[in-house]
Amino acid sequence: MNRAPLVARKMLQYPFARAYSSGVAAAVASAATSTVDGPHTRPVVKTAIPGPRSKALLEEMGKSLSTSQVAFFTDYEQSCGNYMVDADGNVLLDLLTQIGSLPLGYNHPAVMAAVSSSSALTPLVTRPSLAMFPPSSWPELVQSTLLPLAPRGLSEVTLMMCGTCANENAFKAAFINYMDVKREKPLTPDSEEYSSTMLNQPPGSPKLSILSFMGGFHGRALGTLSCTHSKPIHKLDIPAFDWPVALFPRLQYPLDQFVRENEMEEKRCLAEVEEKMEKAAKAGEPVAAIIIEPIQAEGGDNHASPNFFKGVQSIAKKHGASFIVDEVQTGGGATGITWAHESWGLTEPPDVVTFAKKMIVAGYYTTLDKRPKEGYRIFNTWMGDPIRLVMLKAVAAEIRSKDLLSQFRESGDVLLSGLRELEVQELNCTQELFFGKEKVSLIERSATPFWYTGPGARVHSAPLTATPPIRETPSFQRFAAKGLIWEGVGRWE
Amino acid sequence: MNRAPLVARKMLQYPFARAYSSGVAAAVASAATSTVDGPHTRPVVKTAIPGPRSKALLEEMGKSLSTSQVAFFTDYEQSCGNYMVDADGNVLLDLLTQIGSLPLGYNHPAVMAAVSSSSALTPLVTRPSLAMFPPSSWPELVQSTLLPLAPRGLSEVTLMMCGTCANENAFKAAFINYMDVKREKPLTPDSEEYSSTMLNQPPGSPKLSILSFMGGFHGRALGTLSCTHSKPIHKLDIPAFDWPVALFPRLQYPLDQFVRENEMEEKRCLAEVEEKMEKAAKAGEPVAAIIIEPIQAEGGDNHASPNFFKGVQSIAKKHGASFIVDEVQTGGGATGITWAHESWGLTEPPDVVTFAKKMIVAGYYTTLDKRPKEGYRIFNTWMGDPIRLVMLKAVAAEIRSKDLLSQFRESGDVLLSGLRELEVQELNCTQELFFGKEKVSLIERSATPFWYTGPGARVHSAPLTATPPIRETPSFQRFAAKGLIWEGVGRWE
């Protein structure tokens, strides 16, 4: 995860897009270094994509697994750094890196060295129940890896297996906390809570809700899916909790021309949050937590100002609800700082920050006072995976020693100024690559230089029957032919 | 995962329990072989457990992670086969093996060899988005590993990261299927379904339910937790879907003395399932799936007859609901056959069979016609983890080549006849180890020899404030001092 290679990729794709800004090229070239030396230096496309071998494999895979989402098959052994090699030997520039989950790209030597050491073998073959029988090395590994990466003010960490489970359990922690504060007298063995919860009824299973934002994506299990509002296809036909959804600001760009309008838009959205909180409480299903992404990634790369996020935090606090920041997509350095929310200048930390993807391990940070006092409330068989923490340790050391975050920020500046130049020239070529001029301004919007980290298609209601497999969409075909994989464009036509 | 070592462990623990059956000992000794040669042949307890080093590590870990569930710290490098070595050098017989998730025990040479090969390095460091960019080797790996293990009649497989997510997604597949069948006309881009689901409202987010059984355990995300009814502590303070819960049969033992009573009990329970299905449909929240475990493990080791399960399947079919068998605890050979439900003699397979734990990978099997036609409905970033499938392949080959399932069954017979002898002698020592005579009869009940695979404490409502960390419970102390780790006893006093 290095902005310089990203910029290099941008540079490389321009000739294919029929337009080129020499000013950008010069700036980009100066930043075009890579942390991974590998055999690939540019895309090489030899066959149609998917090629004949991918097509044969697709048929084979279809016998036992769904193939609706398959773009092509990959030769991961031959892939290196930012370059992905497909089953037909095509070399592709990868701007997606497995939905933003490979922070240093393919087969990074530092990560390979970390898992190849003899001390990594046991954690891999003996995946322990970390909450019951942690390895002797666990406290040190957690403290030397996860604590230096912790968001300011948060030092309690709970590990899970994926982003969805991180958020589901952050919800549970918030519910437990909310009831802890609210409960007037301690439970006794004959409390109605115990019998009622076994039948999914209050008071043991209370009516509580999580407030989320239109356009947000927080996962796909039944709790998190009720807070996901990016695309209907994710939710259709699945029952949901009837939890409140507030509008996320829709800012107008360029920002400097719409200062007043955008302030009003954010105020309007904050008022709606306040209103929904009150309405939920009155309806007997109070909001125990608000969950929000620093940048709505899956839902269309929507941004808001630090003031908006501060306002949301303040409303949450006023109502005794937890303020959960979902950094599954933005966390781990993607915005040029470790956690995107740290650019907001909050005076106190969020109650919970969740992570996964390029953090390699998944889970959430919180404060010690939010830790459930009783065991087995936030619990599962594994509670994380030590080998993934070994990998994260190597990744974090690499980012630190090579000062990659500075490189991200510098490359971001280069990219941004190059995009501005293209914007001035009103080149149509940027339309597809950056979702047009709006996107250029969106990039300008973010408090820190923006780095694209995940799916970014616009929210719209594509009809269920008209969802072709990604490999059959025209834009996928168009970009793949140029040796470029950009999932956000290819997914929805 | 070998019954012989289990029996050997039983034999070893008897002297500590102050009673011993020489008949059992002789039978047990003959079966006491192990597939792992290691340095440990019996428990050696040198310190209190947790010992001084565990206690120091506990304090260290408490600075950043919850320690409520920690029993002690483990030296996994020194652990081998069925023997776990703790941080203080105590050698313990492990009857729990990480909540039943290590099928061949600690540091098994076959698994170590599989992940040490150079071809395993890339799948580990480059965890792909398997549904979008599968490795070229993926179809072959899935077909050579998961298909030979597939339950009869099921050849479609979907991979997830853990048992909870396997069940959550099995629910989603069932909901999608239910609506697919029910939907009268195809959706169009302006269908109300698309806009309503974005706000968690019907018709896009329909009112549908999953029927589950009292005592069942299916996971801890918000959908599966609504189907979990084993212990209140798992559910307390977390909102739940108001989904129907039916009673699981409570059989009387010895079975041959209660034939008529037990038939009536199962009929009564089936009638209740039927009644709840009708009631849910009338209330406008029809049941899209019934989920059930072949043996209620977490909920108290409750069994039912094949006729009962056949009856449940038949009711599900009649109402157009999927029949989901949750084999997260029972699957992977634990009962002497690969899947416990195959002992029921069903004339057609379950609609969905879910798995995790000792299958190492998690997910569910179903039939091709249950595969959602559209992409991105059952989807997440990783959709499984290839390195775990490499491990399962080695485990399955080991079970096959050593014929471990036969050994499980033989050892089961030995264990069962030994238990019967102890039962005849009415030795109090079995009370704690096997939950008394009732448990002996429970073991007799199962269609195939029973092998204890996970938590097995009785369902009861322990008060929230009276849950000590496992390491502080008297029974944990008692058993640990004898070099035996048996989680089901230690957890709840």
From TrEMBL, chains A, B:
One of its GO terms (biological process) is gamma-aminobutyric acid catabolic process. One of its GO terms (molecular function) is 4-aminobutyrate:2-oxoglutarate transaminase activity. This is 4-aminobutyrate aminotransferase. The keyword Transferase applies. SUPFAM superfamilies: PLP-dependent transferases. Keywords: Aminotransferase, Pyridoxal phosphate, Transferase. GO terms for cellular component: mitochondrion. It catalyses: 4-aminobutanoate + 2-oxoglutarate = succinate semialdehyde + L-glutamate. Belongs to the class-III pyridoxal-phosphate-dependent aminotransferase family. Its cofactor is pyridoxal 5'-phosphate. InterPro entries: Aminotrans_3 (IPR005814), PyrdxlP-dep_Trfase (IPR015424), PyrdxlP-dep_Trfase_major (IPR015421), PyrdxlP-dep_Trfase_small (IPR015422).
